[in-house]
Design brief:
Length: 257
């Protein structure tokens, strides 16, 4: 039967929406409670919606009963402190699974490439239902930072680099695309990440905010690119050697974050 997916994401796996005027909202992400939950890079997460409304970030399939990343329960104490973030996550009207703010410490390009991962968004997702994708709303003004998207983790021939100023909004099929953020700066980057179920509600939201995959790549000088490729290869080789010494092979597991 197959899953219900958004046609707007079919070609490249992502769309960028109109920019949001982030300056008008208070910095609610500084008031909510964070967990030391690790994803790609040095991170913490502050959940707004979780499996059962607790301040935790685990995949819904790791709870009892296990289920897919849908029907998240809003956390009253967090929602009370972050009504604008909650409103934005709920605006599409699509089913929401996990909803969190990520705090990412500075991460250079080479480290970002090593961190590239796919998300296990659709574990236990029943066939014939909406495919789970993720929204990324950049909260801090990270003008020198960018999101990196690839079809193949180690092939830079198709690499999309999306600028991350305050108010940048994108929706990504993160189970399809390898992704991570390059964050250049001295302060943490904050971003609202929401798991949405694909369907007519999300399609209408993408259309309302002029979602497009025809956006310019964030420009990066060739030296930085080459150094990044080399750093990814070096770290990958070191990881492979570590597992080889134990008689094991490296496995690229999908992220549960």
């Amino acid at each position: 039967m197959g899953y219900i997916k958004s046609a707007a994401l079919e070609e490249k796996g992502f769309v960028v929406l109109d920019s949001y005027n982030q300056e008008l909202d208070p910095k609610e992400w500084l008031d909510i409670e964070y967990n030391d939950w690790k994803s790609s890079g040095d991170t913490r997460f502050a959940p707004l919606a979780s499996a059962f409304g607790d301040i935790e970030c685990n995949g819904f399939w790791n709870h009892k009963p296990p289920r897919t990343d849908k029907d998240g329960v809003w956390i009253d104490s967090q929602v009370e402190k972050a009504p604008n973030l909650t409103r934005r996550a709920q605006e599409p009207g699509a089913n929401v699974g996990r909803c969190r703010v990520i705090e990412l410490q500075p991460t250079p390009y080479g480290e970002c490439l090593y961190n590239l991962h796919q998300d296990d968004n659709n574990r236990l997702n029943p066939d014939g239902t909406g495919w789970v994708v993720r929204g990324f709303f950049n909260l801090t003004d990270d003008k020198d930072s960018y999101f990196v998207l690839r079809e193949n983790r180690t092939d830079p021939s198709i690499e999309y680099r999306i600028a991350l100023p305050a108010g940048a909004q994108l929706i990504v099929d993160t189970q399809r695309l390898w992704h991570a953020a390059t964050h250049n700066g001295d302060e943490p980057r904050y971003c609202l990440i929401t798991s949405w179920t694909s369907g007519p509600e999300l399609d209408a939201y993408i259309e309302k905010y002029n979602g497009t995959d025809d956006v310019p790549n964030y420009e990066v000088d060739q030296e930085t690119l080459e150094l990044g490729y080399a750093e990814q290869a070096r770290k990958d080789a070191a990881r492979a050697a570590y597992y080889a010494a134990k008689g094991q092979q490296v496995k690229q597991a999908m992220s549960e974050a």
